[in-house]
Amino acid sequence: DIQMTQSPSSLSASVGDRVTITCRASQGISNYLAWYQQKPGKVPNLLIYTASTLQSGVPSRFSGSGSGTDFALTISSLQPEDVATYYCQKYNSAPLTFGGGTKVEIK
Amino acid sequence: EVQLVESGGGLVQPGRSLRLSCAASGFSFDDYAMHWVRQGPGKGLEWVSGINWNSGSIDYADSVKGRFTISRDNAKNSLNLQMNSLRPEDTALYYCAKDRSSSWTHGHGMDVWGQGTTVTVSS
User: Fold this and answer.
1) What whole-number distance in Å separates Cα of residue B101 and Cα of residue B28?
2) What is the pLDDT along chain B (123 residues), one digit of tens a residue?
3) Hey, is A100 helix, strand or coil?
4) Angle, CA of B69, A35 and B5, to the nearest 5°
5) B50 contacts A1? CB cut-off 8 A
6) Helices H, strands E: what count in chain A?
7) Which among A25, A19, A8 has a CA at the least distance from the CA of A103?
8) Contact A98/B116, CB-based, under 8 Å?
9) What distance in Å separates the CA atoms of residue B60 and residue B63, rounded to the nearest whole number?
């Protein structure tokens, strides 16, 4: 099975900082990658699909990039409401594995 | 309003069975693939199973294969998960999630999630 490895597992940044989370697949998955945000105590929320397409209603400070095995989620200017755990997920074939998550906090 | 509401969770002894249901509303249920995703206490997300729009394609995580069965009733706008031979490691919050596509393989992510139903497996 293809493994999805996220880094870092956690980070602390200041409001307004540019934040980048990476996700690496153990084999190529083309652009079949999604990113989710899960705020504390809440349900996961789809941010990005096909690696770089912003889901409707998601703020434009979020962006995704990458293809093949290496992907990134970038928050261009971190806001207090972005405190959450972020997950990548591959969906080219079963199992639809999630990454281990990256917890983002405000410094 | 697009909505998914899970039910059927509870406390169950190891080795026993439980059936989860998910009621969908506010969208054309039979146009979309559906999934079950779980999250253990303090843990990350784990995809459990997916089913395409017409039940023609189904698959499972290795951790539940042979024990869990996903099904859907498009006439009733419902998704189900039959869980047999439950283990303590199946303890989790189980989410029902809608895919953006009719097929769960090569789909486009899960854009609607229910609030989840809690399953606790313990003696």
Assistant:
1) 12
2) 999 999 999 999 999 999 999 999 999 999 999 999 999 999 999 999 999 999 999 999 999 999 999 999 999 999 999 999 999 999 999 999 999 999 887 778 999 999 999 999 999
3) coil
4) 45
5) no
6) 0, 10
7) A8
8) no
9) 8
* Residues 6 or more apart whose Cβ sits within 8 Å of residue B123: B13, B14
| Best residue of B32, B38, B110, B118 to probe chain A, by most A CBs closer than 10 Å | B110
**Residues of chain B contacting A55 with CB distance shorter than 8 Å:** 109, 111
Q: Hey, are the CB atoms on B44 and A98 less than 8 Å from each other?
A: yes
Residues in B touching A4 (Cβ below 8 Å): none
Cβ separation B59–A36 shorter than 8 A: no
Alpha carbon of B122: minimum distance to chain A alpha carbons (Å): 23
Strands (E), B78-116: 78-83, 92-99, 110-113
> Rounded to an integer, what distance in angstroms lies between the CA atom of residue A17 and that of residue A19?
6
Enumerate the residues of chain A whose CB falls inside 8 A of the CB of residue B113.
43-45
Find the length of chain B: 123
SS3 A2: coil
- Residue at A75: amino acid letter: I
